[in-house]
Amino acid sequence: EVRLVESGGGLVQPGGSLRLSCAASGFSFSDYWMSWVRQAPGKGLEWVANIKEDGSQKNYVDSVKGRFTISRDNAENSLHLQMSSLGAEDTAVYFCVRDPRGRPPDYWGQGTLVTVSS
Amino acid sequence: AIQMTQSPSSLSASVGDRVTITCRASQGIRNDLGWYQQKPGKAPKLLIYAASSLHSGVPSRFSGSGSGTNFTLTISSLQPEDFATYYCLQDYNYPFTFGPGTKVDIK
Q: Which of B6, B33, B36, B46 to mutate to test the interface with A (most CBs of A within 10 A)?
């Protein structure tokens, strides 16, 4: 069974930083691209970033470029999202999602809430 | 970035109804489109990939069609557990973009 468990969310002040993590199990983690998708409270879904199987390629939505960094540790079956210069617009539930090559993201974690507020 | 639109934004339907949701891309995306179902407080679930292929474990009452810029998701006979919000997603190029969602509720 594919299992994705996010952690690291919480309350952070504007301008602050936060690092999200995702623990993956139930599949061969190093064989898959992985994505982060977010959802602001009461709003729709927004794809944020993804990373290639070996970490050699990363893609980001324009609104987070230069502020967020996606990374992975295949030895630990973990995915990370380092977020900096956070603003209120980054308040959202962040989902870790498996991203099969050539297909849309398929399995999702339950999400971790990031709240940016003073 | 490719813009995705959906119609309607919401609809009311009864159990047993046939429901169709439309998704349109601002430029051609071949068949690189997925459909997701999301219930309140839960993570989205993939229903359809490659515009018309059923994801593993998804009931056959769900079907998808289309290519290029126009796509549809059809639920052939709405069940109580299908009341949810549905999103389309283009994975043709980066950044991947979602439609704004269609909320299906009980008439």
A: B46
